[in-house]
Design brief:
Blueprint lengths: L1 E10 L8 E8 L2 E6 L6 E6 L4 E4 L1 E3 L7 H4 L4 H4 L3 E6 L33 H11 L4 E4 L1 E2 H8 L9 H16 L4 E5 L3 H4 L3 H8 L7 E5 L7 H13 L4 E4 L13 H12 L4 E5 L5 E4 L11 E6 L8 E2 H8 L3 H8 L2 E5 L4 H9 L3 E3 L13 H16 L5 H8 L1 H6 L16 E4 L20 E6 L2 E4 L21
Parallel strand pairs: 1-4, 1-5, 6-7, 7-8, 9-10, 10-11, 11-12, 12-13, 13-18
Antiparallel strand pairs: 1-2, 2-3, 5-19, 14-17, 15-16, 15-17, 19-20, 20-21
Length: about 475
């Protein structure tokens, strides 16, 4: 007898093929049958007529490293249908980390010094497993995290001895279950690392291992930055995942086809792909290099001036009667949303076959970018259904089968017999994001149920179980 049978759903199986109405059975955490299951016995039968059933969504770009321990219910993700998160992006990770003289920017996006309790990857993995989060967790190791472990200051290149120490720590982390390496070369804490430093670390990656990168330049130098990333992965034959691919800054608007052509060309020689979030605004710490009057910059938090959170930088500067840059300096450390992208570029990048979906949400931000709560339903509702940017089954593929295969998730990302029962049941006519820049902490509409490893984790209203697992790199059963 099956544990659960979901009857009559439009099954979007993750393969980028049009959906078909079918029944799906769950037994012991796995998908036990797919097809016409009228006569089978089950502990629970769910009538899913009019609803769509998809594999659980995989958020390939998160900063949930400490959030999965701090708030393991993970409502912001489950309420979108997300069943798996990839942490450790942009060069910043919760492990392996030993904090010495304060948390460097942008690692402060993850937590305070006392939150970094994981000197090796194994201790982080153990902490996640003990916390029992509602979602599955896979983790990258951050280049910046390694740098701050072994360097007295970050505004220089690492020495050969320091690189050797970083390589050793990365090697150990990979042996303990890390997915791969990430970098955030645009940030001051890593910008002074030459390409040779990253190349040396990438040598530790196994063939097919993952190198995810927040490019050194997402503005005018984006093509050179992409080539730098491709070069780092070439010798070890690792896979490149370009994080939140974009054309940032008004002078860069309209270059998305050129950027995508570069990605496509590289894909003929090596394994490359990218992720993108469905908004024309980014969010991070307040970066003085990005201060401009060319577009709105919304301050989300400020340690010295907390009352300025939720206001535009231009309005703050006007009130203080100082230039924008002076206001930004006074606000630091702070967080910001940058409305610095063109909608046409966002749409073009989202549509590309090599693009997966990643939220890049910042759960610790007191006024987060709406992508934290709204990314996946926004793709399904706004872009697929309303704007018809691509079919619904393609939207689902970008969130399921594509990332599962590109991030070594094993038997996840597809609705197939014997595969893990990470599933989301949603109403394709109603699903939509409700989070906005002014009211960002809002659950999506139209997500009916979410199963993680075969157990109901979200009932459309609240988290009812926390059955997530820590995921280590695994080949697909089809490989």
């Amino acid at each position: 007898m099956h544990d659960v049978v979901i009857r009559g759903a439009l099954v979007l199986d993750g393969s980028d093929q049009a959906g078909k109405v079918a029944d799906v059975a769950i037994t012991g955490g796995r998908i036990s049958a797919v097809g016409a299951l009228d006569d089978v016995a089950a502990g629970q039968v769910i009538d899913a007529a009019g609803l769509a059933l998809a594999p659980g969504f995989i958020d390939v770009h998160t900063h949930d490293d400490i959030e999965v321990i701090r708030n393991p219910a993970m409502l912001s993700k489950l309420s979108q249908g997300v069943t798996t998160v990839v942490v450790g992006n942009c060069g910043i990770s919760a492990s392996p980390v030993r904090i010495h003289d304060g948390v460097p920017d942008p690692m402060n996006l993850l937590g305070d010094a006392e939150d970094f309790r994981y000197p090796d990857f194994a201790s982080y993995r153990s902490a996640v497993e003990q916390a029992s989060p509602a979602v599955n967790v896979a983790a990258l190791v951050g280049h910046t995290a390694l740098r701050q472990n072994h360097m007295d200051r970050l505004d220089r290149a690492a020495s050969d001895r320091e690189i050797s120490a970083m390589r050793s720590q990365l090697r150990q982390s990979l042996q303990q279950g890390a997915l791969g390496l990430s970098s955030g070369l645009a940030y001051a804490s890593a910008y002074h690392a030459p390409s040779s430093e990253v190349d040396a670390l990438a040598q530790e990656l196994p063939r097919g291992g993952l190198y995810a990168t927040h490019l050194r330049d997402e503005f005018a130098g984006v093509l050179d930055a992409m080539e730098e990333a491709f070069t780092a992965a070439r010798a070890p034959q690792a896979a490149v995942r370009v994080s939140h691919l974009k054309c940032a800054g008004i002078d860069n608007w309209g270059r998305s086809q050129q950027v995508l052509d570069c990605l496509q060309h590289a894909s003929r020689q090596q394994d490359v792909a990218c992720d993108c979030y469905p908004y024309a605004a980014s969010a991070s710490t307040l970066d003085l290099k990005q201060v401009t009057d060319a577009y709105d910059i919304l301050i989300t938090w400020s340690d010295p001036e907390p009352e300025q959170g939720g206001r535009l930088l231009a309005d703050i500067a006007a009130q203080w009667q100082v230039p924008l840059l002076d206001a930004a300096i006074r606000l630091q450390p702070a967080g910001a949303v940058y409305h610095g992208m063109d909608e046409g570029d966002v749409r073009r990048i989202l549509s590309h076959p090599l693009t997966m979906i990643g939220s890049d949400g910042l759960p610790r931000d007191p006024r987060p970018h709406p992508r934290l709560w709204g990314t996946f339903p926004r793709v399904l509702g706004h872009y697929a259904r309303d704007e018809k940017l691509f079919p619904l089954h393609t939207a689902v593929h970008k969130m399921t089968g594509l990332p599962a295969s590109r991030f070594a998730m094993g038997a996840r990302g597809f609705i197939r017999e014997g595969w893990c029962a990470d599933l989301v049941l949603f109403d394709p006519a109603r699903v939509r994001d409700t989070a906005s820049f002014h009211d960002p902490v809002q659950a999506a509409e139209g997500i009916a149920s979410v199963w993680v490893n075969g157990r109901l984790a979200y009932d459309g209203h609240s988290v009812v179980a926390r059955p997530g697992q820590f995921i280590t790199p695994q080949a697909s059963p089809a490989d």
